[in-house]
Design brief:
elongated; 26% strand; 257 residues; 9 helices; 4-stranded antiparallel beta sheet; Copper Amine Oxidase, Chain A, domain 1; Arc Repressor Mutant, subunit A; alpha+beta
């Protein structure tokens, strides 16, 4: 079985980050072509040579016709793609046709799955392949995704990442427990996060909350140095605003140092 998974990622530290761009995971390992997949008028396009050669094909270029020819095991297909940064980008269906592959697309995850053994890969399996667990545990990811969902349900990706960033900031600060779960359920000075008291933290996280938690654990942070956040429209206490230095606002949350 040969599986390619493409999902969102982007390294950006501005507060109002957009939903991530695309990252490729090949057989459970991240791979990084210099031109990432992108949307076009022909739908999602992927770097032709990089993907084709990864799948064991040969790629030749004809400068006169500005076309590429992909060949493997006696099969041959000509591609009239779009050139981006000197790289030909081919639509997803080109790879489906050339490699007799099944393709699956998850809109909510921005996940594209290409499977060349004739079967599809479910979103659940795809999610299981995404984490690297480099420096964090499955438990860390599980609890961080849950608190993100509970605190920022229905908000933008930037808001979800901001919530996750505060949890990571606390974990790394030396002033709070040193684990993600410990930070979330810390009650040394009273309940720190309302969802731990009302039970919302135990709900299943959505895919965007999962991805925001994953990226925060892997180093993406759009709320650096902040240790507090509050939704001024929902907060039942004004302690944070009265006692901490305001930093910025992301979506419905105000952030404080």
């Amino acid at each position: 079985m040969f599986v390619i998974i493409v999902y969102a990622a982007d390294i950006s530290y501005a507060h109002e980050v957009a939903a991530p761009g695309y990252r490729i995971v090949l057989n459970g390992q991240y791979i990084h072509p210099h031109v990432t997949p992108m949307e076009s008028e022909n739908g999602l396009t992927l770097p032709l040579r990089y993907v084709s050669e990864t799948l064991g094909a040969d790629v030749s270029w004809d400068s006169d016709s500005r076309t590429a020819t992909v060949s493997r095991d006696g099969s041959l297909k000509i591609c009239h793609g779009t050139i981006v940064n000197n790289t030909m980008m081919a639509p997803l269906n080109f790879f489906a046709d050339m490699f007799n592959a099944q393709t699956t697309f998850s809109d909510k995850l921005k996940l594209i799955i290409i499977n060349t053994d004739g079967g599809a890969v479910s979103e659940k399996v795809a999610l299981a392949l995404l984490p690297s667990y480099n420096g964090y545990s499955r438990e860390d990811l599980n609890w961080l995704a849950k608190i993100v969902e509970a605190e920022a349900q229905g908000e933008s990706y930037a808001s979800k990442l901001g919530v996750a960033s505060v949890i990571i900031n606390r974990r790394d600060s030396g002033k709070y427990p040193s684990t993600v779960k410990g930070v979330i359920f810390d009650n040394k000075y009273g309940v720190q996060f309302t969802p731990t008291a009302n039970g919302a933290v135990y709900n299943n996280p959505s895919a965007p909350s999962f991805i925001a938690a994953l990226e925060a654990l892997e180093g993406r942070n759009n709320a650096p140095k902040t240790l507090f956040f509050m939704n001024p429209d929902l907060a039942t206490s004004n302690w944070i605003a009265a006692n901490r230095q305001y930093a910025f606002t992301i979506g419905g949350h105000s952030y404080y140092y």
